[in-house]
Amino acid sequence: MSKRFKFITIAAIIAMLVLLTTILADIKNTYIKLGTLTTELSQVKAEFNQYHTLVQKVNEIDNKFTRNLADAKAENDHRYNNVINDVARLQLNNGKPNQTSSAGMDDANACELTGEARQNYYLLRDDIITKDTMILGLQQYISRICLAE
């Protein structure tokens, strides 16, 4: 064997070892990055699951109070329709005890609202129902979602 052939062979072997070492180092770095990405992916999955659970809780609260609001408004509408159709009466407490007047005065008769006042009463009641439901929903959201973390 000639010196030149040995030199080329040794140079080729060294070049292959350097190339193999570089490839192995790249593979090692890739596995390290893969491990890091796997850890990050696990963290993202855990955060997503927490977020998903949170969204479900918020939806439960929203659905509960939306149903309650719809039911309360339907009941208010039903009462209003009964009063309008003379099925029921809207009774007011005027704060005075019932007294019969000996002079023939009409103090003992119940107070009656005008049509517009009656309608305004039920509109105000509807607004109160809406606000109460919103406040209760927000309170439950704060206690179950915000303060639970």
Automatic annotation (TrEMBL):
Pfam families noted in UniProt? Phage_lysis (PF03245)
Give the GO biological process terms.
Answer: viral release from host cell by cytolysis
Q: What is this protein called?
A: Prophage endopeptidase
